[in-house]
Specification:
By secondary structure, this protein is mainly α. It is built from 24 helices and 4 strands.
């Protein structure tokens, strides 16, 4: 036991400060796309990877783990988590250095990229607005195609990273990186694909019905046939999000509102204080700033939790703000007395569950009336279309996740195959969106997660399933559907989930809170079975 404690403590002593500095450098890089911060991120990333690749430490951890003699459950969990992290890095240090350099270069390229339409640089917010609002089909197509141009720029880098990751995985004894990444995330591949196949089957009939109705509506809007619908006729560049019905426009409810104040007040109603985190965050768009959104815990042993967003006042960014500050309240709720390695969420999907649970509130009519302050006589007539819109969003999202997960599995199995064709085969299978005639471009690489958040997307879906289970639990526990305005919500989530950090694996953490391991039935009941 003493050897395990010394081994863990020595690792943390070296790593904690490096991680703190790395998170700060990554934050500055996201804000500025400055080459200085790109270089700093590379340097620190390499140092952390080198620390995790230490062969002697890994050997000793393996021996301790195999012996199974640790009687302190917290120390045993620390050893397990560190062993899993080090497994990912048991390869040539030169390979790890090259991987960090390529990842950082790709991240900076995404940060600097701005598509050009009709001679003018546009932002992701501009793309979203055009695909949501414009009836000019040629403009929509030019905008959609421009949004994919980054794919051609980063695809060679992504394929280089795929090869490097696969080499590292084979060095660690795995067939490929996809298999290794799932195992090291404590997600059995068989479990994941069983869930995906089950959801594909359960959602098939309602999804086909909803897609048929959507394509008919979009065909009428744009003067084509349902068979003529193509990606630019939809509401976002990857068809991740449902197209709202014509009689449902939530943007006016948010157009003149302060989304920062709404986030602060919405979290406070649940008992969470995010004022300091809001103050540290960077929430509005500007030149050279990363156009995406994320939450980062700069220093695990402090409450320095920050969010990057590019807010404009609409329902999409209200969803995103609530989502990111769902991540934030989880990090802020971690027990300060936890050891460093355990002072993190139980799993990526556990914090995604909270983020997704909160993000759903932006289109919840009761939240809109009770927290946004929208007039009930304006919201109540929208309840039926909102219910159908919410249902379609949740029918669509698993299909988008299936595209990502199956694509990544194929890409890591055989990166030399025609990935452009594989991508569109999967889009047509799961999302039912026909590929553009004659198109042969690496559209898959334009999705930032493929290169920079590899084998991550399943966590959104498993998090969504967990969010529905938590929603059901909170409704029962508080005996109200309005858990979002009860300060006891923070107490329950903090004491029963956040406080334990990574003491337990994600499914055990969920079981300890709700009494049950992950059960997709809650999600199916909430979104699939309704109105079917």
């Amino acid at each position: 036991m003493e050897d395990a404690r010394r081994l863990v403590d020595e690792h943390v002593r070296q790593r904690a400060q490096l991680e703190h500095e790395s998170h700060l450098a990554e934050w500055e890089l996201a804000l500025t796309s400055d080459e200085k911060w790109e270089a700093k991120s590379v340097e620190l990333g390499i140092r952390i990877r080198n620390l995790l690749s230490d062969r002697d430490s890994f050997r000793r951890l393996g021996e301790i783990r195999a012996a199974g003699t640790l009687t302190d459950p917290e120390l045993a969990r620390e050893v397990e988590l560190l062993y899993l992290e080090q497994t990912d890095n048991q390869t040539d240090p030169a390979l790890l250095k090259k991987l960090v350099e390529t990842e950082t270069k790709t991240e900076a390229l995404f940060g600097r990229f701005r598509p050009v339409v009709d001679g003018k640089e546009i932002s992701e917010n501009d793309i979203r607005q055009t695909l949501r609002d414009s009836d000019d089909v040629p403009l929509r197509r030019r905008t959609w195609e421009a949004s994919k141009e980054v794919g051609a720029q980063v695809a060679p880098l992504v394929l280089e990273m795929v090869e490097l990751r696969n080499r590292a995985a084979r060095d660690a004894g795995f067939d490929d990186y996809h298999t290794m990444a799932l195992e090291l995330q404590e997600i059995r591949p068989s479990f994941l694909f069983d869930v995906l196949e089950d959801l594909e089957s359960r959602t098939a009939a309602p999804f086909d019905e909803a897609i048929g109705e959507l394509f008919a509506r979009q065909a009428q809007r744009f003067g084509t046939s349902p068979d003529g619908i193509r990606p630019w006729h939809l509401s976002d560049a990857f068809f991740q999000e449902a197209v709202p019905p014509a009689d449902l426009d939530l943007a006016p409810f948010y157009a003149d509102r302060d989304l920062v104040q709404l986030t602060r007040d919405g979290c406070a109603a649940m008992g969470f204080d995010v004022a300091d985190s809001l103050q540290r965050s960077d929430l509005f768009p500007r030149d050279r700033k990363n156009q995406h959104a994320f939450c980062t815990h700069i220093d695990r042993m402090s409450d320095d939790v920050r969010v990057l967003c590019n807010v404009v006042p609409n329902d999409n960014w209200m969803d995103t703000m609530l989502h990111e500050f769902g991540h934030a309240v989880y990090d802020l709720g971690l027990d300060r007395d936890l050891p460093w390695l355990l002072r993190q969420p139980a799993h990526i999907l556990s914090t995604e569950a909270i983020a997704l649970l909160f993000g759903r509130l932006a289109t919840n009519p009761d939240w809109m009336i009770r927290q946004l302050g929208a007039p009930a006589d304006q919201v109540d007539p929208l309840r039926a279309p909102l219910r159908e819109y919410s249902r379609f969003k949740q029918l669509l999202f698993p299909r988008w996740v299936m595209v990502m997960v199956y694509f990544e599995r194929e890409m890591y199995r055989n990166p030399g195959q025609d990935l452009n064709r594989v991508w569109w085969d999967l889009v047509e299978r799961f999302q039912k969106v026909p590929r553009p005639e004659g198109r042969n471009a690496p559209d898959w690489a334009a999705k930032i997660h493929v290169g920079l958040a590899p084998v991550y997307y399943q966590n959104y879906l498993l998090g969504d399933l967990m969010a529905s289970q938590l929603d059901s639990f909170l409704r029962d526990k508080l005996d109200t559907p309005y858990w979002f305005e009860r300060p006891e919500t923070a107490e329950i989530l903090t004491k029963k989930l956040f406080h334990d950090g990574a003491r337990y694996d994600w499914n055990e953490a969920l079981r300890k809170m709700t009494g049950h391991v992950l059960d997709p039935a809650h999600y199916v009941e909430q979104f699939v079975a309704v109105a079917s």
